[in-house]
Write a structure and sequence with these properties.
single chain, 86 residues, mainly beta, 3-stranded antiparallel β-sheet, 0% helix, 27% strand, globular
Length: 86
């Protein structure tokens, strides 16, 4: 799994990689937690995790997920909007 934040803001982003293997049934489960300045991705219920800081432009279009060298089928997608703590 690669988390590429090089185009995510005003400061130079970074690319982080970790090994994420499919579960025994061939599925991969991702939980993404995104707030103003950070992104955390937990793979397969926390078997692996990648965290990064970023400083996106307020007009940033969002998050993109994609696969290289293979194919996937998305089974579900849930999005929750959190209220500000301030």
């Amino acid at each position: 799994m690669t988390l590429d934040c090089t185009g995510s803001g005003n400061l130079p982003g970074k690319t982080s990689r970790c090994r994420l293997l499919p579960a025994a049934d061939g599925t991969v489960k991702l939980h993404l937690f995104l707030d103003r300045f950070s992104l955390e991705v937990f793979g397969n219920d926390g078997s692996t995790c990648v965290t990064t800081r970023m400083y996106p432009d307020p007009d940033s279009p969002g998050v993109r997920l994609f696969v290289t060298d293979g194919a996937v089928q998305m089974k579900s997608l849930d999005v929750w909007t959190l209220k500000s703590a301030w």
